[in-house]
Design brief:
Length: 478
């Protein structure tokens, strides 16, 4: 029974049944592992110190699969088509860590510790390698401590990144061969490089498409190599009195061969402005309409990611006749979040760097984010608390590309919300019964509008879509 849109209020159950279906999706994640470890103190040192060693070996078999609904897999729905995911890999690893405590319990140096660790690995998907790390910790009088680490690391591509099936996506971006894209006040002249590439793809001169989204196919890549990077941290801890502590930690992470999906605007720019054929090969056009039918944007190893920032916290815990209280502030100030796409800017002939700090180009990466929370615990079994969450403002731009100063910009507003809860735990011979009552998003904060957002003109990775929510929870621990 086809749906009739001509007569309002006449949508019948039979019409709804004609348009809808009951979908079924199945999936699995499976791991088999065997590990052997040995650890202990090797020798005692003067000044109350010691040397300890830990060694181990590990074997893991990882397997995963996801079978979407058959109609979804074939694209016969109004939603995006998603192909199946299935794959497996295995790895052998050996690791060790040496800890040296040359000083412990002296008048001015309470604790000095030096650690060195290493790991060797062999994956059947990409091969073998070695990583290592060194770290140090010094505790002095007055509650002052210094800590730091430096190491190289790797991250192996996971099942989804290797084997996930292709899925449709529709990012907001104009066709580079469109001489009158949406929002333009009149015909535009394409650059000579773009004109040449459009002609090579069979697009007639002065074509007008007026498309605001382009179909993109995203998915896994079995040729991925591991991310490799260097990590530096340096921090200070200050505990002037019992229960009160302050921490400040600087971190700098540089990743090479980053496992990323490049922004679509980068792919198109490299093709139509840079004339690089490997990117033009990713663009497929309909032979009849000459519009873009899809752009292949698989996960790949790109040039790298460089990010740094400052983590800070302050906490105070104390006991009173009314119970134990803990107040805490935790936050991050971002210095930089840049992706080296491994491509070359057509104009400057320099490597293309996407700056993500303060822009939505790479997701929600504001200058500042922090949480404030208070917890109260009473010996009678009552607990209560609240949490306040803040995300600073940032900018989004036309075509999701704030790195181009010619693109229009708008500010995404600040976001703040809070949660409350109270619970009671009753212990008995049957175990512990816990009842919790709470309210999330107390001020009913709405997500700020992000026109380039992933869903509903916002971003569910950072903001609450539910609004104010009340809940009651009962749990039993036997």
């Amino acid at each position: 029974v086809p749906l009739s849109l001509i007569t309002p209020g006449q949508v019948t159950k039979a019409m709804i049944n004609y348009l809808t279906f009951t979908g079924t999706t199945s999936g699995l994640n499976e791991q088999h592992t065997a590990q052997a470890t040995a650890s202990g103190k090797l020798v005692d040192l003067p000044n109350h110190g010691d040397i300890s060693l830990a060694l181990g070996t590990d074997y893991r078999h990882e397997q995963g699969a996801n079978q979407p609904d058959p109609l979804t897999a074939t694209g016969d729905t109004t939603g995006n088509a998603i192909a199946a995911t299935e794959g497996a890999y295995h790895v052998f690893e050996g690791f060790g860590e040496l800890s040296v405590v040359p000083i412990s319990g002296l008048d001015y140096l309470k604790w000095v510790e030096l650690d060195a660790a290493g790991r060797a690995y062999d994956y059947n998907t990409f091969g073998s390698g070695v990583t290592g790390k060194i770290s140090g910790l010094i505790r002095t009088v007055g509650g002052l401590a210094l800590r730091g680490t430096y190491g190289n690391a790797f991250r192996a591509p996971n099942i989804g990144e290797l084997f996930s099936g292709q899925a449709d996506s529709f990012p907001t971006i104009a066709d580079p061969c469109d001489t009158r894209p949406p929002g333009s006040k009149g015909p535009i002249t394409l650059s000579p490089t773009a004109q040449m590439e459009c002609a090579k793809q069979g697009v007639p001169t002065n074509s007008v498409f007026q498309t605001i989204q382009q179909r993109t196919k995203v998915g896994g890549n079995t040729q991925l190599q591991p991310e490799k990077g260097n990590v530096l941290t340096a921090g200070i801890v200050f505990e002037p009195i019992t229960g009160l502590d302050f921490t400040l930690d600087y971190w700098h992470i540089k990743i090479d061969n980053a496992i990323q999906t490049l922004p679509v605007q980068t792919l198109l720019q490299q093709c139509y402005d840079g004339g690089q054929q490997q990117f033009c090969d990713l663009v497929q056009r309909d032979p009849g309409s000459h519009q873009i039918s899809h752009i292949l944007d698989q996960i790949q190893n790109v040039g790298g990611v460089t990010t740094s920032g400052l983590d800070f916290s302050a906490a105070y815990q104390y006991k009173t006749d009314f119970g134990t209280f803990r107040h805490s502030l935790e936050g991050t100030y971002l210095f930089q979040y840049n992706i080296d796409t491994g491509t070359v800017d057509p104009d400057s002939l320099k490597e293309t760097i996407i700056h993500g700090k303060g822009f939505y180009d790479l997701g929600v990466n504001p200058d500042l984010k922090f949480n404030i929370f208070t917890l109260w615990s009473h010996p009678s079994g009552f607990d209560a608390g609240f949490n306040f969450r803040y995300i600073d403002s940032f900018q989004e731009c036309d075509s999701d590309d704030c790195n181009d100063p010619a693109n229009g910009r708008r500010e995404v507003s600040k976001y703040a919300t809070g949660d409350l809860f109270i619970d009671y735990a009753l212990k008995s011979s049957q175990g512990t019964t816990r009842v919790a009552v709470g309210m999330n998003n107390v001020n009913d904060a709405k997500p700020p509008v992000i026109y380039n957002g992933i869903a509903l003109n916002a971003d569910e990775s950072a903001y609450d879509f539910m609004g104010r929510m009340f809940y009651i929870r009962l749990s039993q621990l036997f």
